[in-house]
Amino acid sequence: MSVADIVQTMKAKFNPSAAEGLDLVFQFNIEDADNHYLIVKDGTCDVKQGDSPDASVTLIMDKETFKGITTGETDGMQAFMAGKLRAEGDMMLALKLSELFPV
Asked: Torsions phi, psi of 28, nearest 5?
């Protein structure tokens, strides 16, 4: 499964009601694959490949950790505590991911 596939899976799980009134950009820097970002704005979600200059929070991890978190096999908080996931920017927004993209 490619990172693009993983991001599309996230988009399919998107919960628009949790995104009402939000205007955020989640940047995913994947150490061993392509970077992607999600734009969450007023109940919508858009996916782009590359790097966003407007990232609200940047999450840095490898592809396997990213896949595990999005499928529910890996707990994001445990990955963070184990050093497999790093966050830059507004770290509290990273916690919103589970509301926006329920597993």
From this structure: -115, 110
Q: In the numeric block, which tokens belong to residue 45?
A: 């979600």
Contacts for 19-25: CB closer than 8 Å, 24+ residues apart: 19/43, 19/44, 19/45, 19/100, 22/96, 24/56, 24/57, 24/93, 24/96, 25/52, 25/54, 25/55, 25/56
pTM metric for this prediction:
0.93
* pLDDT tens track for 61-93: 999 999 999 999 999 999 999 999 999 999 899
Pair of tokens at residue 53? 């200059």
Q: Are 28 and 66 in contact (CB under 8 A)?
A: yes
In a 3-state reduction of DSSP, which class is residue 91?
helix
- Structural domains for the chain: 3-100 (3.30.1050.10)
